Amino acid sequence: MRHLLSAADLDVVAAVEVLDVADRMAATQQREIKKLPTLRGRTVVNLFYEDSTRTRISFEAAAKRLSADVINFSAKGSSVSKGESLKDTALTLEAMGADAVVVRHSASGAPHRLATAGWIRGAVVNAGDGTHEHPTQALLDAFTLRRHLVGHEATGADLAGRRVAVVGDVLHSRVARSNVLLLHTLGAHVTLVAPPTLLPVGVEAWPCTTSYDLDGVLRGDLGDLDAVMMLRVQAERMNAAYFPSVREYSRRYGLDARRVGLLPDHAVVMHPGPMNRGLEISADAADAPRSTIVEQVANGVAVRMAVLYLLLSGAPEAVGEPLPAKELVR
Amino acid sequence: MTPARPAPDQRSARPPGPAPDRPSGPPPAGAAGAGGADPAGPTSLTVLEAGEIARSLTRIAHEILEHNKGAEGLVLLGIPTRGVQLARRLATRLAEIEGTPVPVGAVDVTMYRDDLRRQPTRTIEATHVPDGGIDDRVVVLVDDVLFSGRTIRAALDALSDLGRPRVVRLAVLVDRGHRELPIRADHVGKNLPTSVRERVRVSLAEVDGVDEVRIEGGH
């Protein structure tokens, strides 16, 4: 693995490997001493052009637990607010010797540009780009699912035959896209549930089914569910009216205690956060015993440790030859 | 932080090329050829058979008990993969001799190695510390082959993150020489003079279907 830009970069073997390594990492996080010397002397830059709490903290914790040096860069309060381009920022990071760049950007495709333009030699990790992808979120969701459905230390297991419903604002959600791709790779069946206005154009081509009827899907009309994953209604990305009113959305697509009751006993409730309590998920549903929301955050650190380990350990030729300095674009 | 990409770390003075602890690598010539009664044969030579391995382990078990004056406070920790199997076999023998079970676990050293940047990405194996932990215990590290000593160095680092044993001892099935660090084993199944070019391959029934130690390569 040279970069992690899309959940589609991972085939089933690579995806299961990330989850297996994450299992080992999670085990080390139960110890009194959580720090490992594995990435000593390597530098990880968190390049965040968009606000984020849990993803940035999670990557920072992951890098620090592996003894890498971490440089946090957020667009606010940096030269970006003076108009510096992505390219010039990237060249600066390269000059500082970044071994990995974790990037979040509001423009879909920014991490891909960073990885392929020849500006930097380090590994690029997509931490969310526009409405495109958020592969580490999908990995931590898959990890959480595997722990609940298969068990801890489930080395080598995929999610074959499992059923997951992804509910809500699919249109603006990079989490949904990455999850559909990754869960499909791992053998699970995904059903997207959303009002027609919040399903993206071309969703028919995604490896999943779609439905407009949340109650029916929860009841098991398409097969018993193993998990329901709620998506945040992304008001900040909505520049038009996608549904008549908040109350109507909440009644038709919000998860409340009654709807949780429709699920099979073993099924879990997930949410990538941050939640709009009372909109897409009620407080009772979010705080229910079968909710994995807090656990997802904890698992995020282990999964990101695994990703950084797989990208940054190993001989350079094994992870892909870095560009020689002279080929870098100046 | 300076410009160029971090060169593979140069802490060890060895010439470029893999410096693993296990299946040994290539060149650096100049090492003594295989001596002793086992001429480093054509390509492959069995140096220990099942019966000899079993007797070595029994002897090591007695040595451990003799040195420790019983099984009190002992914890066996194997280094994956084959060290774990050997630790389990030793624990069985200790229990038979002393009549009390001896805790056995595994300590994976992958994340503590000093050659992560020189090898393809390594698989991380499970670490399992038996109930009761290792604080103030007598920990016996168990591995199949002692070579450069780098695995054991990594294991000592890993141990210090897991707790603070009273004493750490080292038991290995084969000591093949060519140490690169000031490390020695307390209990050795067999000292095996080898050339650096040769590979020492330990097979155990649990993993490989057969018990034997072979020397391969070396021309």
Any overview of this molecule?
The complex is a heterodimer of chains A (330) and B (219). By secondary structure, chain A is of the alpha/beta class. Chain A has helices at 12-28, 54-65, 86-95, 110-116, 135-149, 174-185, 214-219, 246-253, 257-262, 283-286, 293-312, and strands at 43-48, 69-74, 100-105, 123-129, 163-167, 189-193, 209-211, 227-230, 268-270. The two termini of chain A are 26 Å apart. Chain A folds into 2 domains: 7-133 and 297-327, Aspartate/ornithine carbamoyltransferase (Rossmann fold), CATH 3.40.50.1370; 135-294, Aspartate/ornithine carbamoyltransferase (Rossmann fold). Helix content of chain A is 35%, strand content 14%. Helix content of chain B is 24%, strand content 21%. In chain B, helix 1 (50-68) packs across helix 2 (82-98). Chain B is built from 4 helices and 8 strands. In chain B, strand 4 (138-146), helix 3 and strand 5 (167-175) form a beta-alpha-beta unit. In chain B, strands 3-2-4-5-6 form a 5-stranded parallel sheet, with helices on both faces. Chain B has a 3-stranded antiparallel sheet with strand order 1-8-7. Chain B has helices at residues 50-68, 82-98, 150-162, 205-208; strands at 44-49, 74-78, 104-106, 138-146, 167-175, 187-191, 199-203, 212-216. By secondary structure, chain B is α/β, with parallel strands linked by helices. Chain B has a domain at 50-195: Rossmann fold. Classes of the chains: A alpha/beta (330), B alpha/beta (219). The A-B interface holds A 21, 24-25, 27-28, 31, 33, 35-38, 41-43, 66, 69, 95-97, 99, 121, 153, 155, 309-310, 313-316, 318-319, 322, 325 and B 1-6, 8-9, 108, 111-112, 116-122, 124-127, 157, 161-162.
Low-confidence stretches of chain B: 1-41
Class based on secondary structure composition and strand pairing of chain A: alpha/beta
- Percent range of helical residues of chain B: 10-25%
Q: Could you say what the CATH topology of the largest domain in chain A is called?
A: Rossmann fold
Shape of chain A: globular
Count every helix of chain B, treating DSSP H or I runs of 4 or more residues as helices.
4
Strand composition percent of chain B: 15-25%
Radius of gyration of chain B, rounded?
18 Å
Task: Give a short account of the largest sheet of chain B.
Answer: 5 strands, parallel
Radius of gyration based on Cα positions of chain A: 20 Å
Q: Please write the string of helix (H) and strand (E) elements of chain A.
A: HEHEHEHEHEHEEHEHHEHH
Count the strands of chain A? 9
N→C terminal distance of chain A: 26 Å
Main sheet of chain A? 5 strands, parallel
| Assigned CATH architecture of one domain in chain B | 3-Layer(aba) Sandwich
